[in-house]
Amino acid sequence: MKDRHIIYLHGVNGENSKKGMLINAITPKQTPHSPKVTLQNIERDILTDNTIIVGSSRGALLALFLSLKHQLPLIAINPAIEQSAINKGIYGENCDNEIAEISLYVKENIHNLRYDTMLILSKNDEIIDYRNANKLINCEHKVFINEIHRIANFELLVPLINYKITKFINKR
Questions:
Q1: DSSP strand E in the chain: where?
Q2: How far apart are CA 143 and CA 133, in angstroms?
Q3: Which residues pair with 54 in a beta bridge?
């Protein structure tokens, strides 16, 4: 069996997040103004067929894209599938268009998502409506938590995430 590596993709303004470190993941540098450049860099420099992707918020949208395109294991945390307007306000028109394009790809291809995906949704999310992601994404494991979008107690999810990662690793 080949070694697996884990990529963690953070959300907007998550550059200093310790989430990736908590799950022993590679946290690639993202290009906030161009999500497409971020995806291209990951595909070129990091991605292999033995990658497990974990993403949070906007990073979960990018992770969904990569998982669908390359059929990779995925843990998506509060995926910001409908966030183009927020991105436009923060990063400008180009980013908004790229996020909209990525989101459209995800929506059009979501039926191809690996069933063993894990989805973690915050029921008190003030940024995204968790019910939309819950309806859109059909997967084996859905976890609902009473948290806000940023998940203040992320460290409490680490054992669950690591358990799922171990299941992914042992499956191959």
A1: 5-9, 51-56, 74-77, 118-122, 141-145
A2: 12
A3: 8, 75
CA 73, 78, 84, 90 torsion: positive or negative?
negative
Mean pLDDT of 61-81: 94
Rounded Cα distance between 50 and 168, Å, is: 10
Q: Could you report the per-residue pLDDT of 103-130, keeping only the tens digit for each? A: 899 999 999 988 789 999 999 998 888 9
Rounded Cα distance, 107 and 109, in Å: 6
Cα-atom radius of gyration of the chain, to the nearest Å?
15
> At 20, which amino acid appears?
G
Q: Give the whole-angstrom CA distance, residue 22 versus residue 136.
A: 28
Contacts of 129 (CB under 8 A, 6+ apart): 82
Per-residue DSSP letter, 111: G
Give the C-alpha separation, 89 to 122, whole Å.
23
Backbone angles phi, psi at 71, to 5 degrees: 50, 55
Buried b (16+ CB within 10 A) or exposed e, 25-62: bebbebebebbbebbebbeeeebeeebbbbbbbbbbbb
Which residues make beta-bridge pairs with 26? 7
Residue ranges of domains in the chain, CATH in brackets: 5-171 (3.40.50.1820)
Output the six-digit token pair for 153: 């107690």
Residues 150 and 57: their CA atoms lie apart, in Å, by 9
